Amino acid sequence: MDIETDVLVVGGGVAGCSTAYYLAREGVEVVLIDRGDVNAEASGANAGSIHAQMYYHNFNTRSAEWIAAFAPVLPLLKLSNEVWRELAAELDSDIELVIAGGLMVAETTEQLRLLERKVAFENAQGTESTIISASELATLAPYISDRMIGAEFCPYEGKVNPLLATAAIASAAEKSGARIQRLTALEAWAPTSKGFEAHTSRGRILCRRAVIAAGGWCESVAALLGIRLPAWGRPVQLNATEPTQYRIDHLVYSAGEKLSFKQAMSGNLIVGGGWPATLDPATGVQIAEHAMIEANLWTALQVVPDLAHLRLIRTWTGMVNQTPDARPLIGPVPGFPGLYVNTFPGMGYTTGPCCGKLVAEAMCGKTPSFDMAIGAIERFADAEVS
Question: Residue 69 CB: number of other CB atoms within 10 A?
């Protein structure tokens, strides 16, 4: 294989496939490569949450300066919700997108007071969340435990089926003219006078421009160019129950322990929240931890007691994108003309299509729909050529 193209996208998850889709739709010649298959890594292991609010832990424990610096991310999350709605209408298949709102439930007065402060902060950024009482919560979500004394309700949150959605975006990219090269590992690449020359496990690719959209592997992909990029992955684990009657439209969180809870359209309950897994030091294989499974399910039972009669049928692991300040890396890479990066920590599945669209707009010479300055790489002193 010897390929020439305008843009090379590295990474076959939701961010990479979305970038390829929006570029191809503008008539840009684009090739996407992945060492495995489309959606085979972090995106395919994702729980499919569509976020719009801050994590409770961050608001509770971070400094006022950190929270203020994170504030511009909230409008990006809201825009990401709108992009998902657009995609659901454009794509040829049902991606099971449901935007019915998110509930962050509180069990104590202290938790509820902090949620009130969080709502005030988020509303100042345009998130438009509200605090609801215990009686309102019982009416809106009767499956929630009556121990909960109130909740934050964020109307822009929801869920999508990541196994369907990324595949549908990849298919749309190919129909728009993008070429996707599966089982194609990037082994080395270097700048040239005309762009970049990439050497892969299946041959050489010459491109004028490139996008690093490899999620938790962005750091290692950039390192092949001699770039120190502060974007890595950490392993987490998730759980799924057997199917039960469908009745939960919301994305549910707890203001206590870590929890994200939702029901798939198939009836399975998906229980997560960022509980850590481990990496085998010899093989790098992700390993689920029994203690974390127990803690995650115990937390879910405190919020949704009816979960107790269901059997756990699956636990799996996946990588979550990370950056030092929990803000995205989006946009051009300094010192490498034509090179862009697209990765968002923690909420990468939520923002993948939106950030892909923004990067594509910038690469096509358009004014991006959102100011990408919040994702500028220059904010990190160590994001430089080594």
Answer: 16
